[in-house]
Amino acid sequence: MTKQKNDITTIEDIRMLVDRFYTSVRGNQQIGPIFDAVIRDQWPKHLEKMYRFWETVLLDNHTYFGSPFPPHAKLPVTQQHFDTWLNIWQQTIDAHFRGPKADEAKWRAEKMAAMFLSKIEYYQSTGKTPLV
Per-residue pLDDT tens for 53-75? Predict the structure, then answer.
């Protein structure tokens, strides 16, 4: 029997999505080591920040305050890394959720990945440092 998939509507949904997503990320041979090298033993802190970020973005409950790009500015990543990240994100959503917020989560991640990659490539090619 197939479990019915609901939309992303609560902080509990966000927590489950983020937890499952990062479990998959950490197990991925291409991007897992990059995340582990940066986050090291700070995973609980990072996950809490991601809960707040996605709660703010998807549920319009403003619990995240900060600039998401600067911590990513100097990562050694390319389009291939972002494609992997997006694929894991979309698979995680599709496995657990269905609805307008689930679709929005995928759309927002696509836009964010494109913007982050563009900025990372700019900083890699110019040697400039992003504003914090």
Answer: 999 999 999 999 988 888 888 88
